[in-house]
Amino acid sequence: MSQPAHFHPSGSFKERSTAAVGDSAQRKNFRGAMDFLQAKRSAQFPDGEELAGLRALGEAIRKYSLARLPQLLERLERNLIANGIRVHWADNAGEANAIALQIARQANARRIVKGKSMVSEEIGFNHAMQDAGIEALESDMGEYIVQLAGEGPSHIIMPAIHKTKQHIAKLFDENIPGVGYTEDVDSLIAIGRQVLRRKFAEADIGLSGVNFAVAETGTLCLVENEGNGRMCTTVPRIHIAVTGIEKVVEKLEHVPPLFSLLTRSATGQAVTTYLNLISSPRKAGEKDGPEEVHLILVDNGRSQAYADAQLRATLQCIRCGACMNHCPVYARVGGHAYGTTYPGPIGAIVSPHMLGLEATYPLAFASTLCGACVEVCPVKIPITDILIRLRNEAQARPGSKDASLRGSSAGRSALGSAIWSAWSLVYSRLRLYRLTSWFLSRGRALSPIEQGPWTRSRTPLKPAPQRLRDLLRQTEP
């Protein structure tokens, strides 16, 4: 792709969300899509007791894995190497891309075909390869559509959920030679498939994500529906898998419960079309598979979350997207308004560790704290509790015990600090409180009509004409 993808800056969430709310067509499309996904998920969990038990099991597996994460990562590395898979460690996005680029250059690779991978989006893989003169083409249909549009995904499971068939028809007509305008969905899928099939055969490297990495067997598990993941991991000569360090589990028997929760929570399917288990490169006598398999394990801020007892729960996430599908804020503003790779509730608690709180703290306030995300999370992440923690971190006094994250205190302003200091002073001294309340009640006519964000959707605040103490005094016999 010669067209660079458009990156939304992590700031200016207010402006982007305001524009999104003003787009009535987008709001209607997202509301319909979210209602559809909610209904499909609900239909997959008709038994409340079974769901509760499965969620408790999923939470226990993820907590158990995270409690032993350092040991499991070392065990995973040993078993992967024993199986013939090469393991690489990346502290940040730049290191991850440098490792992939080195692999590509050693293989004289010019084309990379990609299965769906949110971590590759997180590290800006496509742009790093493009800058190095290497084509990186998305093969997931949704990812292919947003790449063609020069955009990023607006949902972690359904990247092009914000696109209508008319948008896609126009994109294909303008960007794929020899293709006429059609709004027939089957025809559009066939067009995309025809283009991508040729790319699988031409690619030097196939890249994929990893849903679960099994330490005891050295196995990479990949969940998908379209078959493109299997094509990326078997047709090209080299397979590169990239994943976050938190995706490891200890045993193969831990995968089925998480797999069941993932598929039913994400797309409302009992099972996905494909569950790929990759344990080695092609062996002697085998007819397909890559000659080399590489795994890049990415930290990129995850260690910061891991080091904190409360924030470690963010790493339990299995990337199902259910929290987005049930979030009233996400349904109204869509994924691009967040300006981060991971939008919605999970993005609000994950992104600060990757990008710093100074760039992402507004996202922690983009929530009603209704708890819908907590109720549907298949591994029971306490998202609302973490959002409150991040809000406190954003407003914390620099150097205080509450400011522990990278970018803490970024939301603290001089005016806000002065107001709260004055409030604290008034409420801690009885005589000053009485005097202040007397002046406020007598001077209520001077209350400003414009009171910042409060009056954007509410009537102005005015002190009562009489204080409570005055009213009580009037009732005395």
Can you characterise this structure?
The protein has about 475 residues and is of the alpha/beta class. Among the domains are: about 60-305, NagB/RpiA/CoA transferase-like (Rossmann fold); about 415-475, no CATH class. Helix content is about 50%, strand content about 10%. It contains 22 helices and ten strands. The chain has helices at about 15-20, 25-45, 50-65, 70-80, 95-105, 120, 125-130, 140-150, 165-175, 185-200, 230-235, 255-265, 300-305, 320-325, 330-335, 345-355, 355-365, 370-375, 385-395, 415-425, 430-440, 470-475, and strands at about 85-90, 110-115, 135-140, 205-210, 210-215, 220-225, 240-245, 250, 275-280, 290-300. Strands 1-10-7-4-2-3 form a six-stranded parallel sheet, with helices on both faces. Strands 8-5-6-9 form a four-stranded mixed sheet, sandwiched between helices. It is elongated and about 100 Å long.
Total beta-strand segments: 10
Largest sheet: 6 strands, parallel
Major β-sheet strand ordering: 1-10-7-4-2-3
Structural class: alpha/beta
Q: Provide the β-strand percentage band.
A: 5-15%
Supply the CATH architecture of the domain at 62-303.
3-Layer(aba) Sandwich
Shape: elongated
SS field, number of helical segments = 22
What is the radius of gyration? 26 Å
Portion in helices: 40-55%
